[in-house]
Amino acid sequence: MVSTIPRVVLPTVQALAEDAAQRFARAASDAVQSHGEFVVALSGGVTPRRLYERLAAPPYLSSVPWSRVQVLWGDERCVPPDHAASNYRMAREALLDHVPIPAANVHRIRGEDEPVAAAKAYERTLRTVLRGARIDLVLLGLGDDGHTASLFPGPPASEVADGEPWVAARYHVAGALWRVTLTPVVINAAAEVLFLVSGEAKATIVRRVLEGPQQPQELPAQLIAPAGGRLVWLLDAAAARDLGAC
Ligand code: 6PG
46 in ligand 1 pocket by Cβ < 6 Å? Predict the structure, then answer.
């Protein structure tokens, strides 16, 4: 089955980062023009890191309205903010330390706290930042096992019955680590969702997620389908290798 989910294939991972940076800059300027600020949720992972490094250099360093950017995270590993595995630390080193974003606009998930408490606190943060609006742009990666953000394969989480939180704690069995993640409820309410996926190692899972049968329990990335927003998958040629023609 060839899916209708919009995907854009770039020849190299560098071209993917450049395309993603252009989309980020455009989304930021559109959002600032329409409602005065740009709310973005960052992802962890090696492909997003390349985007952040690109954004920290010209022309984006001066063309993005950084003072109007509000930074959230799609997920965080439950480690302190200076830990090598921290998504906050990665984004800080690759981007935030190099651009003029006011410290008050950076809203990290407190990975050092108890996971359920950190998730609840981050939900309050999200509601305060959003004030009833939606996230302008959510950046996501795709794990080898079909996960995205920290939504891992497995039985549905029990709190789904519990009022559908925007933020949840999840135990990552393979990594033996708790994580805190936005849930599909809030991701799918965003104005735009951009997946960034690169490398040959992702080719099989990309094909399963985009063109295989719907199995969202095994492939949580299939849960991402913004209701009133735009979804785009940005892939490099290696990750798109096994896809059918669009
Ligand atoms: C994380 C992520 C996660 C990531 C994918 C892809 O914190 O690990 O947010 O969802 O985006 O695992 O990661 P790579 O781009 O490194 O393969």
Answer: yes
